[in-house]
Specification:
single chain, alpha/beta, 4-stranded parallel sheet, 15 helices, binds 1,3-dihydroxyacetonephosphate, binds iron/sulfur cluster
């Protein structure tokens, strides 16, 4: 392992590469990365990087977003098949036919989506800025939120607004947590705050003390000593490592995203050695998708 880490550091320096890691990556990958973050933080970081190679440790939609936002840099996804099942719950064809039936609807697209779906959308959002993005749309407009019904409904509720939601969801956040676990953990840890990701079902976010992105959780974890976390395992694992003195409880050990765990240290080494697997986005589609991404980034800078 030590030899692999040394070779990665050497290749990173020699090839002028930068490694980005999403907050759900295994702790050893986060520790190796130059930057860690949630989807929004990593997208913003991708726009600022002037490297020859960007190794994206996350899932495909995140690496595609980085490739669109920074076309001068070669973006590598170390495990080619790291996808997002929620992103696959809507296709561009689905969205085109919805828009034909509802031509005046504004389409808000969670970044957990394909580049083709982003190209058919008006504005993107992440879990960190979904409320802000919805608030930027005139009140008299109909909104379709794709693909995550949970994030869309939660964000709309914060504004007292109605939105139509596509019936997509994250299988991990939808199915790993239930109300019984919340009740059990609340009685075992009555002085802990419950932080939930907005991809969770409303039955969970309704019971949470605070609902936020993974970046928001990292920030709050620096401020409080006792917390229950309702999101993917990578984040509480990392928090436990950096705050051994704090009480950090994962709401359910079942909340593991297989796709987020596909990248290993050896994949990163091979990515840098062979400059694989380059994420290429069709230029015409990228030119349309960047509009919805830029509209989001303008609100978030
Ligand atoms: P964040 O943007 O909050 O990191 O969420 C990304 C994600 O895929 C959650 O499942
Ligand atoms: Fe997609 Fe859910 Fe995995 Fe996030 S945790 S990448 S939404 S499947």
């Amino acid at each position: 392992m030590q030899n692999m880490l040394e070779e990665i550091r050497e290749l990173r320096r020699r090839k002028n590469a930068v490694i980005l890691a999403h907050n759900y990556q295994p702790t050893e990958i986060i520790e190796l990365a130059d930057y860690m973050g949630d989807s929004l933080q990593l997208a913003l970081k991708a726009t600022e990087i002037s490297a020859d190679i960007l190794v994206f440790c996350g899932v495909r939609f995140m690496a595609e977003t980085a490739a669109i936002l920074n076309p001068a840099t070669k973006v590598l996804l170390p495990a080619q098949d790291a996808g997002c099942p929620m992103a696959d719950m809507i296709t561009a064809e689905d969205l085109i036919s919805y828009k034909q039936e509802h031509p005046d609807t504004v389409v808000v697209c969670y970044v957990n989506s394909s580049v083709e779906v982003k190209a058919e959308s008006d504005i993107c959002c992440t879990s960190a800025n979904a409320v802000q993005v919805l608030a930027s749309i005139p009140k008299d407009k109909e909104i379709l939120f794709v693909p995550d019904r949970n994030l869309g409904s939660w964000a709309a509720k914060q504004l007292g607004r109605t939105v139509h939601t596509w019936q997509g969801f994250c299988p991990i956040h939808q199915h790993a947590f239930d109300v019984t676990q919340v009740e059990e953990m609340r009685s075992r840890y009555p002085d802990h705050l419950l932080f939930a990701h907005p991809e969770c079902d409303a039955s969970i976010t309704d019971l949470a003390d605070e609902v936020m992105s993974t970046g928001g959780m990292l920030k709050r974890a620096a401020e409080v000593d006792k917390m229950i976390i309702a999101t993917e395992k990578g984040l509480p694992d990392y928090l436990k490592k950096i705050y051994p003195q704090k009480s950090i409880v994962h709401l359910s050990p079942k909340a593991v995203c297989k796709d987020m765990k596909k990248i290993t240290i050896s994949h990163i080494l091979n990515a840098l050695r062979h400059e694989q697997h380059e994420v290429k986005v069709d230029a015409d589609i990228a030119a349309r998708a960047i509009n919805s991404l830029n509209r989001m980034l303008e609100l978030s800078r």
